[in-house]
């Protein structure tokens, strides 16, 4: 493991088989992936150069990182299919684990951990998601109006984030909700659909979401509604909870 205090970049070997595809064509297949925390919240994958099966064509793009050093940019080409500016190398990085590795842009490829497709970013081995049934009363207010009141929540505890309260739809004022065109993806839970809430003519956009078909490990929240703790008033057993400060605030 490496840790650079300037950028607080951590590098750690993973034991998972990791593959990346471009248009169904194999780009990389490795048993020695590196998890690199370029930002504090989640890692990305770097792949040993010898495990890259695509051509890396220099594109003249360079980039400086205070912690990782000078990056050389590449286009990724495999069987005539090209992903522009989708790879970087740090051959002289002060983090020696990166010297012989390739950073593949996660969004440019389809990624598999073992034989399971992953989305958004690699799963953080230090993040955990626990979903527990509860009989605690959860009441949600927006602008002083109760929009949900339930005594059968599923409480989702995720490392680094506040507890989230997933509520049965019969306990939610669905008459105040309108479907949004926003959708987000999570590597632990799947794809979420969002609703807006309108209170006395004021629209609160994308303030509640639902996972209709979550990933297998998160099936307990299927079809339940969750409000942003950061943006609404939540009363837990009658006690108003402080609004947490998170990247979603």
Number of strands: 23
| Average residue-wise pLDDT | 95
User: How helix-rich are the residues, as a percent range?
Assistant: under 10%
Q: Outline, from the CA principal axes?
A: elongated
The CATH topology of the largest domain, please?
Metal Binding Protein, Guanine Nucleotide Exchange Factor, Chain A
Tell me about the biggest sheet?
8 strands, antiparallel
Which strands sit side by side, in order, in the main sheet? 1-2-5-6-10-9-8-7
- One letter per element, helices H and strands E, the order comes to EEEEEEEEEEEEEEEEEEEEEEE
CA-atom Rg in angstroms: 22 Å
Number of helical elements: 0
CATH class of the largest domain: Mainly Beta
Explain what you see:
The chain folds into 2 domains: 2-118, Beta Complex (Metal Binding Protein, Guanine Nucleotide Exchange Factor, Chain A); 129-240, Metal Binding Protein, Guanine Nucleotide Exchange Factor, Chain A (Beta Complex), CATH 2.170.150.40. It is built from no helices and 23 strands. The protein has strands spanning 2-4, 9-13, 18-22, 25-30, 34-37, 44-48, 55-65, 69-78, 81-89, 101-104, 110-113, 116-118, 129-133, 138-142, 145-150, 154-158, 164-167, 177-186, 190-199, 202-210, 225-227, 233-236, 239-240. The strands form 4 sheets. Strands 1-2-5-6-10-9-8-7 form an 8-stranded antiparallel β-sheet, with no helix packed on it. Strand 11 and strand 12 (116-118) form a beta hairpin. The chain is elongated. Mean pLDDT is 95; it is low at 1-6.
């Amino acid at each position: 493991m490496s840790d650079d205090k300037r950028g607080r970049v951590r590098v750690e070997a993973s034991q998972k088989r990791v593959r990346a595809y471009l248009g169904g064509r194999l780009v990389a297949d490795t048993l020695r992936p590196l998890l690199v925390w370029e930002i504090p919240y989640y890692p990305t994958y770097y792949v040993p150069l010898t495990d890259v099966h695509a051509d890396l064509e220099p594109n003249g793009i360079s980039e400086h990182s205070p912690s990782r050093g000078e990056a050389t940019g590449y286009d990724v080409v495999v069987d005539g299919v090209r992903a522009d500016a989708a790879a970087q190398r740090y051959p002289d990085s002060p983090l020696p684990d990166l010297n012989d590795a390739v950073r593949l842009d996660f969004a440019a490829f389809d990624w598999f951990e073992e034989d399971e497709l992953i989305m958004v970013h690699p799963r953080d081995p230090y993040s955990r998601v626990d979903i527990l049934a509860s009989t605690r009363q959860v009441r949600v207010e927006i602008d002083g109006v109760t929009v949900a009141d339930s005594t059968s929540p599923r409480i989702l505890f995720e490392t680094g984030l506040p507890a989230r309260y997933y509520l049965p739809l019969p306990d939610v004022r669905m008459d105040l909700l309108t479907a949004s065109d926003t959708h987000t993806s999570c590597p632990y839970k799947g794809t979420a659909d969002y609703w807006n809430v309108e209170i006395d003519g004021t629209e609160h956009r994308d303030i509640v979401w639902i996972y209709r078909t979550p990933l297998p490990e998160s099936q307990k929240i299927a079809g339940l509604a969750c409000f942003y703790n950061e943006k609404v008033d939540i009363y837990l057993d009658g006690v108003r909870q402080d609004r947490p400060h998170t990247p979603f605030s």
